[in-house]
C-alpha cells in the first residue's frame, strides 16, 4: 500500500502540532540500514490508525474529539487521512468512509448562508470556528474533483464558493512597514473572523486558512490573489531575523526568541502553496527548521530543566472580583533555559513559581495571590481573555470580548 506522504506532511504541518521538517535523505538511509523493517513498521502503524478511524466514524459520517468537541475539524482531518491512503469518492478501501464524511458536510442542517462551514452552535467550535473553516475547505476541495454525481458536485461547488468568500471576509487587515520603509497591507486569520475578534490573528489559523484556500484554488474555485498575497506578507512580517515564525503579529519587527518551529514548518507549505518554490522566504524558514528540529517551544532553546511550553498568552476564567481571574498553574511555567525564566507574574492576580526536575519528567510548582501590575490590562470577566506575561519574554494583549454569535452562524463575516 502506497500513501501520499507529501499530503501527510502538509496536513501534519498545518495542524500546528509538533511537526518537524522531514530529515534529509541520507539520515533516512542510515535509519533504514539500522532497521530494515522501518518502512513496514510505519505502514503497519498507519494501517492501524486508518482502521481506528473507520471504527470510530459516527453513523452520520462525522468524527469528533472527546466530549463531542471540534466535529468539523476532526471530520475534515479524518477524511484527509483516507484521501492520503489513496481512497477517493470513486474507489479505494475507504471510499464509503470518505463518502459518508462528505455527505455529513453537505447535510442541510449544516448549511449556512454566509459560508461558515463550522458549527457555531457547538461550544467547542463557537470560539474557534476558523480551524474548521480551513480544514473543512481543504478536505472538500480535495474531493470535489472526484465527484461524478452532478447534484453532489453542484452542492460541493456552491459550498466551497461560499466558504472561500467567508474565509476572505474573515481575514484581518493591518499595516506593516517593511525594512526599506515601504508600508504594505498584511492580513492573517484568528480563531474567529476578524469582525468577531477585533482584528486578532495568529499563525496556526492563518496557515490553516491558507491551505484551505490553496486547495479550493486547485479545484477551480475562484480565490482572490490579494487575499493570498496579504497572508504571505503576514507570515513574512511574523518572521524573525533568525528565520522563525512567531505566534502572531504585534507590530514592528518580529522579536527573536519567540519563534515557533511548528508554525515555521507549516509556513514552508504555505510558501510552496503560494508558488514560492525557490523564494528566499521558504529557504529562510527551512533553514530555521533544520536548526531547530524537534524543538516545540518558543525560542528554540533547549531548557536545562523540563517544563511545559512557555507562552505569552495565558487563559483566564471568569472571576467574581473585578480585574482578577483564576489562572491555572499548569499553563504557567518557566525555566532557566526558556524565555520565561523562573518565577513569573500573571496579570490575572496569580504568580507562578515552577519547581524544576529531571529532564523528561515535567515540572510542578506553586501559585500565590498577587497584585496585578497597574501598567497591564485587566483580564477579568471573560473566559477567553488572555493574561500577558510581565516577565519580559513578550508583550501581551487582552483581546476584547467578541460579538455574540447566533445559531445561524456569525453574520459579520
Written account of the structure:
The structure is a single chain. This protein has about 425 residues and is mostly helical. The protein folds into two domains: about 5-290, Glycosyltransferase (Alpha/alpha barrel); about 305-355 and about 365-400, no CATH class. The chain is built from twelve helices and seven strands. It has helices at about 5-15, 25-35, 40-55, 70-85, 95-105, 125, 130-145, 150-170, 205-220, 225-235, 260-275, 280-290; strands at about 175, 185, 315, 345, 350-355, 365-370, 385-390. The chain has a three-stranded antiparallel sheet with strand order 4-5-6, with no helix packed on it. It has a two-stranded antiparallel sheet with strand order 1-2. Strands 3-7 form a two-stranded antiparallel ribbon. Helix 9 runs parallel beside helix 11 (about 260-275). The longest helix has 21 residues, at about 150-170. It starts with a helix and ends in a 25-residue tail after the last strand. The model is unreliable at about 1-25 and about 300-413 (pLDDT under 50).
